[in-house]
Structures are given as C-alpha cells and as structure tokens.
C-alpha cells in the first residue's frame, strides 16, 4: 500500500510542482523513487515531527500541497497540537501520511501500534480522515486528497495487502464503496482490515448468511446515507476496524445510528479499549484481538445466532 | 510614523487594552514594543490595501501572548481601525488574547509556544522554492526557548540554509513564574544558537538603531537570530522586572494612572494619545501598602530540600 501511495504521488507531483513530500526521516527503500525523481519537491526534516508538521503548514500557507510522511503514531500523536493549531485551524493543505495503521508493526511493540489515531484525528475539526482498504483505494485516495481543501489524514497499511477492487471509477471523499449486496446483515469496515473482512464475508455466505459489504475509505466525513439506509434495511450492522473501538470508525457509525430512527443493532469489532501487550505479526495480532477472517466469522455467526 | 512614535503608541495601546480587558501579559507587550515598532515603521515591506501581496515580508509573533503589541502595530499602520483595539478579549471580538490570523495583517495564529519558528521556516523554505525574495521574521520569547520544538526548527533552518529567515528573541529574562535562569537555565543563549549554526547577534532590544542595524546585517549563508536584550515591563517603572506583571493588568486607580503618566513623560512630540490626550491630571498615587518592588518569583518561596548540599 505504501508503494502504491508513493508511485501515485510521483505521478501527481511530476505534473504539479507545488506538491511537496516531507519525511520525518523514515521511508528507507520506499521513498527513494520520489527523492531520486523529484529532489526539488522532497525534504527530509529529520527525526523531528513537531517541526516537520508546522514547516508543512508554513509551506502550505505559501501555496504548496504538502505531504508529511512517517510511521505509526509519529506523524499524528507526536505532533498533535501542531496538526490542530497550525494545519487544521489554518485550513492548510497538509496531508499527513501514516504508514502502519493498526498492527502493521505488530512485532515492534506497543509504541509502534497505531490504534487510537483514527479517534484522535477524527475529533479535530477540519481534518478529513481517509483509511483506504486496498491498493486501488490507496491510489484513488492519494489523488483525491491532493486537491481536497484543508488538512487530511491518510492512514495506510504497509505492504502485501490484497487488491480487493479491480478498479474504482467513482472514488469520492466521503463516499462508502459497496462491495457486495446482501439480505441478512451489513458489514462495514475501514482501512486495510478489508482483506480479512472480505475473506470472512465469503465464509459467512457459505454458512448461509447473506451479507451486504461496504468499505469506508473515508471515516470523516462519514457516508451517513449508507449508514442510515443500511440501518433501516438490516437488523444488524457490524463495523470492523484495526483500531480501538472507542472513538474510532465504529463510534462514528454509532453516532449516526444513535441520532436517527433505525431498526438495526450495531456490533463494533476492533480492539476493546486496551493496549496490545502481545508480540507478534499483524496476522497473528489480528487473530489474537478477534478480527482475523476466522475470528470475524465466528463472532458474526455468534451474534446472528444469539439475536 | 517613525519607530519611536510607533513603539510609544504600542505601549499606550497595550496599557489601555489590558486595562479595559483585564488581560494578561502587559510585561511582555512592553518588552517587545520597540522590536515591533522598528519592524513595522522601518523594516517590513507590506501593503495595507493588499494584505496578501506575494512580495510582502512575513511576520510571525511566536510569543503569541504579546498579541496586543502586534495588534496595536497593525492598527496604527492601517490594517484595521484603531478603535477595534478596545475590543481586546471582548465577547465576539477578533482580538483574542493570543495572536489570531482572523485579523488582517496576521500571517499565523500562535499562543502555544514553540510553533512560530517552524512555521516561519516552512514559509522561508517555500519562498526559496518559489524564487521569491521576501524575508520571514519570527519573534520568540526567551522562555519559549524551553520548548524542544524551537530547537528542532533551529536545526532545520540551519540545515536548509534559510538565509531569508530572521528570528528575534525578546530576551527579557523572565517567564511565567520566575527568571529564566531560575526556571531552566538558558545561558549562554547566544552560544546555543551559534552552536546550532545560526549567525547570532546580541543587541539592546530597546535601542532602535541597534535593532535596525542588526536586522539589516542578515547573513548571506543561513538564518540569523537577534537576541534582543530587553526589560520585562519596559517603560513603566513599577512593572519593570517584576514577574507580577506577567499576568496582572493595570487596575483602576494608581496602577492605571501612574502607568499612563509615566508614558506621557516620555511621549514623542506630536504623538496623540487618543485615550487620555493630556495624561491624567489628578492621578491616584500608590499608597504605602502598594505592591511595588516585592519579589513575586517562585524561587522567593520555593526551597526544596533536594538541592541542599
């Protein structure tokens, strides 16, 4: 996913000299194509995320379209006030790119797990939160946020994600993407957990559960139309995110459902408000915390059977 | 208007604004007044009728708590009506205590310390990439240099040779609770900046000729910092070097009356005071119990045992 992002950004930046990429000294083996091809649009700000973020704001106020790049929580939590005061409040065209949303860097430990970032970024007025689900969504999201006004947060996986979509001709910020129609339940997900969710949906269908599946590449602004429409049609809606269920994507869906007359009951699946203390790969940790494809199938079947 | 006249007006507005609003930070407004006066009278290129002109010099008052000083300067040079200064802190006002970019002439909102130099560095880098020749100024407090992000920006500006960036430090030697040296030792501040690769000058921050000369000597190779030696509360004797006036506002009575009259004693000829044209003719004077010359610093009453040998 990160390579798709870089490749897409290079294509855009070759045509638009106002596009700038600033890294917080990360991207070994990833950003090289950018800095080799477009050295005058690239800056390594060193291991100094606070400065990087406000430098980006300053450049954006001078007309640049700036991407800041780092991993895990470094481009967000480490410099949260810089995002709030300097980027978002000034309506600066700064696009904050996080590589490693969720458990991508699972084995590296808790410091490297980005598991509250959606909640925190979503709470900032003026920040658009985009979490692409596969490589096609990542490419389309990158194109979309360059011209999208104000500050955006782009939460990426790392590499090896499956391509779920063949193509997306009408990708728009704020619009969910329907992957399949169904009759019994609706399953929503955001971000790279889409591959496990898609596998789970196939399995659920084999068990006779007809699922309507959506990917939400944008968490903010949320596609309320899809949420409300599904809330009326289905008895149950499941949200899946590689993130804390407190404040994240499931919470965003819950906010819409709570304030409208709906018949569906919501089940939020994600990390249950705890820090991950287990060491392991992304695949392993997804399973341990209950959102691998297998665990999703079991959980959803259990919820469906137990009304 | 020359720089002396503008600096005087900044001080007079500062007293009136904090008096009316019960606002804080008059000490910092007074210490930075001469720097702001020189910048807006003699140095900066701007057009009040075209506030976003690409060629304008950019200014960020990173020590945003001294917002009244830049508001007063901008109003006096014509960015907005001087009358609006009276709305400082008021309900529905544009003049927040800390600097707001919702006002014409303000480039960047501040108030959380340690952000302004990075924003100025970003603007300076963009100017270089855009082949533009304007300069970017960031005015910092000395206490603000406690913030680690200042030093991130210092590394960055030196590394990218931002010779269109000038930082001015209002070095009044005091911060929120105490003297800087009794809070987190900063000296030698000049050596620190030099060791970060900056051209560093030390000047008298109330001497307008020295301020002009220093700004006009900016290096050709990289960023420059001017450490402006100032006095917190400069110009009002009972406020000078007293940390009380970091937060206290000039109250009705002797505090306001004496502050106004002290300013009138050194009013440049021909400058009009729109609030009290002739000063205050029958001023209240401080009584014997007036809080003048007392030590309000934290260290005056803080004696932890861990430092005893």
Q: Can you describe this structure?
A:
The complex is a heterodimer of chains A (307) and B (309). Chain A has eleven helices and twelve strands. By secondary structure, chain A is an alpha/beta fold. The model of chain A has no long low-confidence stretch (mean pLDDT 96). Chain B has a single domain, classed as Thiamin diphosphate (ThDP)-binding fold, Pyr/PP domains (Rossmann fold, 3-Layer(aba) Sandwich). Helix content of chain B is 34%, strand content 9%. Chains A and B meet through helix 3 and helix 4 of A and helix 4 and helix 5 of B.
Fold blueprint:
The complex is a heterodimer of chains A (307) and B (309).
Chain A: H1 2-15, E1 19-23, H2 32-37, E2 42-44, H3 49-61, E3 65-71, H4 80-88, E4 94-99, H5 117-122, E5 127-130, H6 135-147, E6 151-156, E7 177-180, E8 185-189, H7 194-206, E9 211-215, E10 218-220, H8 224-233, E11 236-244, H9 249-258, E12 265-271, H10 282-288, H11 293-305
Helix pairs in contact in A: 1-6, 3-4, 7-11
Chain B: H1 3-21, H2 26-43, E1 58-61, H3 67-77, H4 116-129, E2 136-141, H5 148-159, E3 165-171, H6 189-195, E4 199-204, H7 208-215, E5 224-229, H8 244-247, H9 254-265
Helix pairs in contact in B: 1-2, 1-3, 1-9, 2-3, 2-7, 4-5
- Order of SSEs of chain A, N→C? HEHEHEHEHEHEEEHEEHEHEHH
Tally of DSSP helical segments of chain B: 9
Total E-strand runs of chain B:
5
Low-confidence stretches of chain B: none
Cα shape of chain A: globular
CATH architecture of chain B: 3-Layer(aba) Sandwich
CATH superfamily of the largest domain in chain A: Thiamin diphosphate (ThDP)-binding fold, Pyr/PP domains
Rounded Rg of chain B: 19 Å
Number of domains of chain B: 1
What is the number of domains of chain A?
A: 2
Mean pLDDT of chain A: 96
State the fourth-level CATH superfamily of chain B: Thiamin diphosphate (ThDP)-binding fold, Pyr/PP domains
Notable traits:
heterodimer, A: 307 residues, alpha/beta, Rossmann fold, 2 domains, 7-stranded mixed sheet, 5-stranded mixed sheet, 11 helices, globular, B: 309 residues, 5-stranded parallel sheet, 9 helices, 5 strands
């Amino acid at each position: 996913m990160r390579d798709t992002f870089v490749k897409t950004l290079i294509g855009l930046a070759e045509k638009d000299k106002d596009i700038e990429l600033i890294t917080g000294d990360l991207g070994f083996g990833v950003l090289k194509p950018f800095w080799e091809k477009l050295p005058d649009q690239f800056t390594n700000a060193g291991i100094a995320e606070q400065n990087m973020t406000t430098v980006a704001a300053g450049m954006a106020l001078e007309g640049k379209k700036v991407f800041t790049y780092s991993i895990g929580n470094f481009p967000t939590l480490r410099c949260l006030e810089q995002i709030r005061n300097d980027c978002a409040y000034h309506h600066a065209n700064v696009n904050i790119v996080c590589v490693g949303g969720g458990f991508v860097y699972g084995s590296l430990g808790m410091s490297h797990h980005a598991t509250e970032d959606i909640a925190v970024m979503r709470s900032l007025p003026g920040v658009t939160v985009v979490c692409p689900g596969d490589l096609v969504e990542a490419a389309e999201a990158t194109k979309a946020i360059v011209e999208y006004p104000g500050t955006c947060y782009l939460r990426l996986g790392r590499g090896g994600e499956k391509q779920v979509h063949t193509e997306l001709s009408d990708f728009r910020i704020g619009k969910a993407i329907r992957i399949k129609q169904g009759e019994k339940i609706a399953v929503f997900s955001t971000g790279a957990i889409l591959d496990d969710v898609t596998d789970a949906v196939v399995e659920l269908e084999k068990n006779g559960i007809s699922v309507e599946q959506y990917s939400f590449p944008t968490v903010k602004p949320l596609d309320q139309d899809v949420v409300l429409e599904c809330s009326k049609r289905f008895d149950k809606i499941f949200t899946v995110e590689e993130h804390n269920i407190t404040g994240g994507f499931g919470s965003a869906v819950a906010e819409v459902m709570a304030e409208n007359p709906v018949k569906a009951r919501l089940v939020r699946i994600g990390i249950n408000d705890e820090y991950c203390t287990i060491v392991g790969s992304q695949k392993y940790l997804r399973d341990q915390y209950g959102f691998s494809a297998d665990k999703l199938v079991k959980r959803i079947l259990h919820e469906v059977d137990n009304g | 208007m020359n720089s002396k006249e503008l600096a005087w007006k900044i001080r007079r507005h500062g007293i009136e604004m904090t008096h009316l609003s019960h606002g804080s930070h008059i000490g910092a407004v007074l210490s930075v007044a001469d720097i702001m006066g020189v910048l807006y009278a003699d140095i900066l290129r701007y057009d009040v009728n075209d506030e976003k002109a690409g060629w304008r010099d950019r200014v960020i008052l990173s020590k945003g708590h001294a917002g009244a000083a830049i508001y007063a300067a901008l109003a006096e040079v014509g960015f907005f009506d001087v009358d609006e200064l009276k709305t400082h802190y008021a309900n529905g006002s544009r003049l927040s205590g800390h600097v707001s970019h919702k006002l014409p002439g303000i480039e960047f909102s501040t108030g959380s310390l340690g952000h302004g130099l990075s924003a100025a560095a970003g603007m300076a880098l963009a100017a270089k990439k855009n082949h533009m020749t304007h300069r970017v100024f960031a005015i910092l407090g000395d206490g603000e240099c406690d913030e680690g992000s200042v030093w991130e920006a210092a590394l960055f500006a030196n590394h990218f040779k931002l010779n269109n960036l000038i930082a001015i430090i209002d070095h009044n030697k005091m911060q929120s609770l105490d003297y800087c040296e009794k809070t987190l030792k900063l000296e030698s501040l000049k050596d620190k900046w030099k060791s970060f690769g900056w051209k560093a000058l030390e000047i008298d921050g109330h001497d307008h000729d020295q301020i002009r000369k220093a700004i006009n000597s900016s290096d050709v190779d990289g960023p420059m910092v001017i450490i402006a030696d100032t006095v917190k509360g400069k110009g009002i004797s009972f406020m000078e070097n007293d940390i009380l006036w970091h937060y206290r506002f000039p109250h009705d009575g002797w505090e306001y009356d004496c502050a106004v009259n002290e300013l009138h004693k050194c009013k440049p000829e021909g400058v009009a005071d729109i609030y009290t044209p002739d000063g205050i003719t029958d001023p209240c004077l401080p009584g014997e119990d007036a809080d003048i010359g007392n030590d309000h610093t934290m260290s005056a009453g803080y004696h932890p045992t861990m430092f005893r040998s």
